[in-house]
Amino acid sequence: MKQNKKIVVLGAGESGIGTALLAQAKGYDVFVSDKGTIKENYKQSLIDNNVTFEEQQHTESKILDADVVMKSPGIPDKAPLVKQLRENGTQVISEIEFASEFTNATCVAITGSNGKTTTARLTHFILEKELEVGLGGNIGDSFALQVLQKDAPNYVLEISSFQLDDCYAFNPKIAIITNITPDHLDRYDYKLENYVASKFRIVQNHTENDVLIYDADDEILNEYINTHDIKSTLIPFSLVKTFKNGAYLSDNNLTITLENNTFSMPTKDLALNGNHNIKNAMAAATVASLLKIRKQTIRESLENFQGVEHRLENVLKINKVQYINDSKATNVNATYYALESMEAPTVWIVGGVDKGNNYKELFPFVNEKVKAIICLGKDNEKLKENFSGMVDILVETEYMSEAVKIAYKIAEAGDNVLLSPACASFDLFENYEDRGRQFKASVRNL
């Protein structure tokens, strides 16, 4: 990509602003366009750096004149303007693609349907004890801005399928795919194979000198790896299999063997509970082992990591009832892990915008562990159809404060109250963070 080209940045969020400032510094002619209102701090940043921008509109003549377009991952390919750009042969890329061109850092890139945020934060938590490392992508500060301001020698990047769709040359030294379950299929013509192919773009430029760490218990991942020419060196992790090179369970110990070098620690010492978190720990510790972090550092980090907000987050214990915020569970698979990890009778708060959910895999846990269901959504018919025969109490509300008050009345000493919606949040909340914070505020107001 030559300099002095015209770059248009579509969407002035965290990734857009970072890209604009990096592009400006690298000699590009930059224009930022956002169909909504740009946040004041972002707007000020553009003004301070003399970057031309517009908000609440897209001026097509200026956008279609671009040599390259950085598209916010939230803008779908089906958007007429994006379609037109592609038809014109204009290169449409993601922030990850753009920023990676200007750094020689070792990148650890993490994708998957669930667990990628926890895995990314945990990996960064371990690595930062001994390495200079940035955290970016879907979390942390803009990757592009970090490359501009203080280019670290290492990065941990959480990357969504939407970001990967617009990556072409990006090549992370270490890639992790945590798992793949049907999600966001509306963006992939409702074809699972399209979504899976999108996730595997993370290794599209890999050679045998690069590493793919993946869940060997995931049938979708196994099938793709077995039927496609993946060039990466494969390092699997599993709860039920063992490997010469990989991570696995051995006598309730998390064990990682890499080229005859073994790391091991009891799973009971992990700070995070649940089988899904054992897998997240396996992936993160494998990265740390590859990057030569000391075993003692890895062990202490896994013992002390405090987890991610809105992911199985213990909020408060009131009258011996534990309130748990799992608002980040926006699909059935994430809620599966949450219910699996419950070890006490549970009042389950569920609901929101259904993404074509199939709730059958939750039935055994609901039968075994859930004593009452509180449906928190505008349309709860599908939830009622699936679960009304399994619990004695099923109630509906559109208010978080009311959902928590109902749960407070139902729950008894020793129970859990779990917010794990299995659905998107946009019917009643701004996003899953807003939903989780309202839950926590309502619990604290009891």
TrEMBL record:
Record-level GO BP terms: cell division; cell wall organization; peptidoglycan biosynthetic process; regulation of cell shape
EC number per UniProt: 6.3.2.9
UniProt subcellular location: Cytoplasm
Keywords attached to this entry: ATP-binding, Cell cycle, Cell division, Cell shape, Cell wall biogenesis/degradation, Cytoplasm, Ligase, Nucleotide-binding, Peptidoglycan synthesis
Primary enzyme class: ligase
Domain called Mur ligase C-terminal: residue spans: 310-423
Molecular function (Gene Ontology), one example: UDP-N-acetylmuramoylalanine-D-glutamate ligase activity
Summary of the function given for this chain in its UniProt record: Cell wall formation. Catalyzes the addition of glutamate to the nucleotide precursor UDP-N-acetylmuramoyl-L-alanine (UMA).
Family membership: Belongs to the MurCDEF family.
Name of this chain's protein: UDP-N-acetylmuramoylalanine--D-glutamate ligase
